[in-house]
Amino acid sequence: MAMGSGAFTLALALALALDAPLPGWAPEATTLALQCLLSGSWRSDTGCRMVVSFLRKDGSFSGSYLPGPAAGGSEILTSPLEGTQQDAGLVPQPTFSFTVHSETARMTAFLGQCYVGTNGEETLHALWLLREAANSPAEDWKATRIGTSIFTRIK
């Protein structure tokens, strides 16, 4: 038994030194081999829609954002968005950030990461901060909201 654990220890040390998989162990290479790019159309778990129209070589992007029914209001307008993502060539599941500036007195900042599941499906997991203009410092406490959204690609 000691000989078996010694062989495992040696195999583990070699695998770590050579950055190689252990014999008989298959890493989840399929999820890491796929790249996650933000360009295209996305829908959030709250019904918001996002279109990333231009993804530039430097990782910056622009597009449009349409709030979902949860946004309230009688007239819902598409708003421009601007952001950046990590180089997907270096990081297969990159982090990203973008801002949405609506026509009303509000702005939203998103920060998240793009994931590729074992089935090849891309999802964006984001934390957001929505800031509305306050009429006075006394109303400042209610001007910022925080939440999370999960976006899936619209095919």
Main sheet overview: 8 strands, antiparallel, barrel
Give the C-alpha Rg: 22 Å
Question: Structural class, from secondary structure content?
Answer: mainly beta
- Put simply, the count of helices is 2
Q: Unreliable segments (pLDDT under 50, ≥5 consecutive)?
A: 8-32
**Order of adjacent strands in the largest pleated sheet:** 1-2-3-4-5-6-7-8
Mean pLDDT: 80
Portion of residues within helices: 10-25%
Tally of discrete structural domains: 2
CATH class identity of the largest domain:
Mainly Beta
Number of DSSP E strands: 8
Quick structural gist:
The protein is mostly beta strands and 155 residues long. The protein has helices at residues 2-18, 29-33; strands at 40-44, 49-55, 60-66, 79-85, 95-101, 106-116, 122-132, 144-153.
Structural write-up:
By secondary structure, the protein is mainly beta. About 15% of the residues lie in helices and about 40% in strands. It has helices spanning about 1-20, 30-35, and strands spanning about 40-45, 50-55, 60-65, 80-85, 95-100, 105-115, 120-130, 145-155. The chain has an 8-stranded antiparallel β-barrel with strand order 1-2-3-4-5-6-7-8. A hairpin with a 5-residue loop joins strand 6 and strand 7. The radius of gyration is 22 Å and the shape is elongated.
Write out key terms for the chains shown.
Lipocalin; 155 residues; 2 domains; Avidin/Streptavidin-rel; 8-stranded antiparallel β-barrel; mainly beta; biotin; glycoprotein
Record the SSE blueprint.
Layout: H1 2-18, H2 29-33, E1 40-44, E2 49-55, E3 60-66, E4 79-85, E5 95-101, E6 106-116, E7 122-132, E8 144-153
Antiparallel strand pairs: 1-2, 1-8, 2-3, 3-4, 4-5, 5-6, 6-7, 7-8
Keywords: Biotin, Disulfide bond, Glycoprotein, Secreted, Signal
Organism: Athene cunicularia
Protein name: Avidin
